[in-house]
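Hi R.,

As promised on Friday, here is the backbone we talked about, encoded as structure tokens. Could you run it through your design pipeline when you get a chance and send me back a sequence?
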């Protein structure tokens, strides 16, 4: 009887699981094992192979070799958008207001332009 080894890379550590070769191992069974061990929700986990391809829940492991390596990623809740959507909603309005007051700027000697203009 042979054994199969699953190497799982979590965000903080690497864990190894051993299975007998007669055991059917799927993505959902690995998720359930991780959830039981680390008190997580299965819906918050994403399993991916080392190439980055996401492993589906019904995908069977150990089809080509006796060793599999997976990485675990946690889902983050998304929002309505960040800075990119803010820029899109502003349109061209941000560039339409050109600065005309340069009094607070400094020249090459470090003096404020309003002071230089006041001395003239």
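Update: got your reply. Pasting your designed sequence below so it's all in one thread:
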């Amino acid at each position: 009887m042979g054994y199969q080894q699953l190497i799982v890379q979590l965000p903080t550590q690497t864990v190894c699981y051993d299975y007998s070769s007669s055991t059917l191992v799927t993505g959902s069974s690995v998720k359930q094992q991780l959830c039981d061990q680390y008190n997580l929700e299965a819906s918050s986990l994403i399993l991916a192979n080392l190439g980055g391809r996401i492993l589906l829940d019904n995908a069977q492991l150990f089809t080509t070799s006796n060793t599999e390596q997976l990485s675990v990623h946690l889902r983050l809740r998304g929002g309505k958008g960040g800075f990119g959507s803010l820029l899109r909603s502003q349109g061209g309005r941000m560039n339409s207001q050109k600065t005309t007051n340069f009094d607070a700027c400094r020249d090459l000697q470090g003096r404020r332009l309003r002071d230089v203009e006041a001395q003239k």
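One thing I noticed while checking it: The chain has two domains: 3-74, 83-119.

Thanks again,
M.
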